[in-house]
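Need tokens for this chain, all 452 residues.
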Amino acid sequence: MAACQNKQAEKKDQQQEEETSFSDFDQIKAQGEITAITLYSSVSYFQYKMQPMGYEYEMMQDFADSHGLKLNVKVAENPTKLTEMLLNGEGDVVMYNIPVTNQLKNKVIYCGREIVTSQVLVQRNEKKDTLLKDVTELIGKEVYVKHDTKHHERLKNLNSELGGGIIIKDVEKDTITTEDLIEMVSLGQIKYTVSDDLIARLNKTYYKNIDVDLKVSFPQRSSWAVSKNSPVLADSINSWFEKNKNTTRYKAIVKRYFELSKLPDDYEVLPILNGMISPFDKYFKKYASNLGWEWQLIASIGYQESRFKPQAASWAGAEGVMGIMPRTAKGIGMSRQDVLNPETSIKGGVEILKRFRNGFSEITDPEEVVKFTLAAYNAGIGHVYDAQRLAEKYGKNPKIWNDNVEEFIKLKSDPKYYNDPVCKHGYLRGTETYKYVREVVDRYKYYKTKSS
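Here are the structure tokens for all 452 residues:
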């Protein structure tokens, strides 16, 4: 009887082993695809204007392309799930910088670009501001951090290490995110907050007046990882990083996320002379009728996207007067030459707006339809649908933008919300979309009073 049970146990173990199939690189190449496990974040992976983006994602996509592989992405719910999914055979590589620990070294092979990360103090750096240069200078200072986060925990530990004196402002309000706190520092509404250094560096490309150099935690090594059963894959990833780390392409990716300003050259509304908003008014007037919107509204979008510069290109790759992404252009049959031509860019932008508008047929108020369509044009319609579902879940009206859905588009940068089961499209820097809709609508109203 015992022998029979042992055989059954062995058979069960064998079945489990077969079900958990770790693919080393030869098998991956034979299958023609590689599966990467990651988390949604502004650094690792997100969708913007219906296009996958992210620093880690672009690195992984380049690695896959170099070997002729299709890249599949699986998103984990939290950091713990990353290694769980890897060890369960649900993916080939963790495309996320996980901490290097002795415990995990026994289970995975760390590979790729190893980085050293820290938590940093975010403070404003303008002429009248005095920069803190040492953590001891935090004594007597108010530092705002999100409640029950690793930043909150680190600040409490640092306060203990210093013998007390840091005034920790524990932000419990759900509608405030870490990136909101960074913006509040930039605006001078609060003095200090704490962030991961990569997130802080990325936000510095949005807010040039912040300093993120003061480390408030010990350094932590981190990198990608593969299963112990995939040493050849680990070697291939290591070789790829070593070969590419000094290439123009690699440096361009780093620059796009951590150096290139995400802000346009200026924010002023151009003066309107003789009722003319732009050199392209005749095209705005010509194609606005395809949508049934007033031409000044289309012009306001054009200004927001490009400042009416036909050769304009955003950090994310949107180009032309109407800021059209390459993948979107391809989807409606536009070439890059079309995108950079003012007339065809405006015609194409109107077609894209029309398609997005059709996605909100259940909304009957024309003014609300405009706002939802603008949000979709800026962020992608999936993120707007996510915000609608969140609004409905939390008792707000999913068919009204102001003070309802717009509040939840902002919250799509908070893990509590973008990891909610009702969300299908993950992280979004929603504050940008919130501002986009308001600025386009306000400028449109101004344009109407000054043009004909």
